[in-house]
Amino acid sequence: MIIQPPRLAASAALLLLLLLVFLRCSDEAVSATNGVPAIFVFGDSLVDVGNNNFLRSVARANYYPYGIDFLSGPTGRFSNGRTVIDMFVDMFGIPNAPEFANPNTTGVGILHGVNYASAAAGILDETGRHYGERYSLSQQVVNFESTLNELRRSMGSWNLSRYLSKSLAFLVFGSNDYINNYLLPELYTSRFRYTPNQFANLLLNRYSRQLLALQSVGLRKIVVAGVGPLGCIPNQRASGAATPGRCVDNVNKMLGAFNEGLRSLVTQLNSQHPESTFVYVNVYAIFGDILNNPDTYGFRVVDTACCGVGLNRGQITCLPLQFPCLYRNEYVFWDAFHPTEAASAILAGRAFRGPPSDSYPINVRQLALI
């Protein structure tokens, strides 16, 4: 993917208009989708709300300047503010799902869902091991089953079945299997053992098993996010593999097999399980549009992190008490790996009400109305 040179930032009036439109869409969504009782979140640091705070892991974001624009300050979210999941729960008008690892996540606290996401987690159990403890995809599914046991005791099997059929599940996996596994041959052997296509097939086979496990216990509305253009994140730009003004094209190219395979898997699962609906969010295309047309969305900086150290502020990610950029809404990337709240808002809005090219076969709003 070729990144165009940053153009002039959009005017403050245009940015304000975009925010007002987003908020209006959110208000409309609440009245239309307030039948969603709960959201269950599975994934990595893109949607972690603090699970790793309770694990022996160096992959944490519970310090300033993380959360500098979040009402509660640093919580463990890998963002300057809200993540896409925070925006979804606002759209549905339900409380945010608490982190599974928190001992206080029990009783009535789990009725609106639970967040199992864990920074550095992958589809493969080995992914991210150099960061320490994390909940991999398979462990997150096990953790969800323990939540089900508690819910079953409080509401009974019949009510639980109806509750799960109306709830939403969001899964965000795959990025770490590349940047914290396949693209680190000095730490992992996967790149020596698999071609990019073989590795994508391995991930999809493992992913499919866990999606079916969630479906088998009663979840009926399941959203899976594709992997974004990892070759364009500041971390990869700072690796020395990218030429000035370009992303690391070979990294982006290898993601095609996974994303296309995941979309095909969604089609297959919908055909085989008509009582359930699986939705694929085309994160790659949405972020690709943002990166190639930044001024359309009010962004000025697409290749450098708002907070970080070194080339593109991506060689070392955001450090404790580091002073971040001032105009965070003009940056696509918050740190070496993660988007800003402003970029996440665009992703959430397009996934929620976008066309099939953004969310396939239907968008998240339509899924909630089923």
Automatic annotation (TrEMBL):
Signal peptide per UniProt: 1-32
SUPFAM superfamilies registered for this protein in UniProt: SGNH hydrolase
Subcellular location per the Swiss-Prot or TrEMBL entry: Secreted
One Gene Ontology term, aspect cellular component: extracellular region
Gene Ontology MF term list: hydrolase activity, acting on ester bonds
Keyword line: Hydrolase, Lipid degradation, Lipid metabolism, Secreted, Signal
Top-level division of the source organism's lineage: Eukaryota
InterPro entries named among the record's database cross-references: GDSL (IPR001087), GDSL_esterase/lipase (IPR051238), SGNH_hydro_sf (IPR036514), SGNH_plant_lipase-like (IPR035669)
CDD domains linked: SGNH_plant_lipase_like
Pfam families reported in the protein's UniProt record: Lipase_GDSL
Biological process (GO), any one: lipid catabolic process
Keyword Lipid metabolism among record annotations: yes
Family: Belongs to the 'GDSL' lipolytic enzyme family.
PANTHER family membership: GDSL ESTERASE_LIPASE (PTHR45650:SF8), GDSL-LIKE LIPASE/ACYLHYDROLASE-RELATED (PTHR45650)
Name assigned to this protein: GDSL esterase/lipase
Organism of this sequence: Cucurbita argyrosperma subsp. sororia
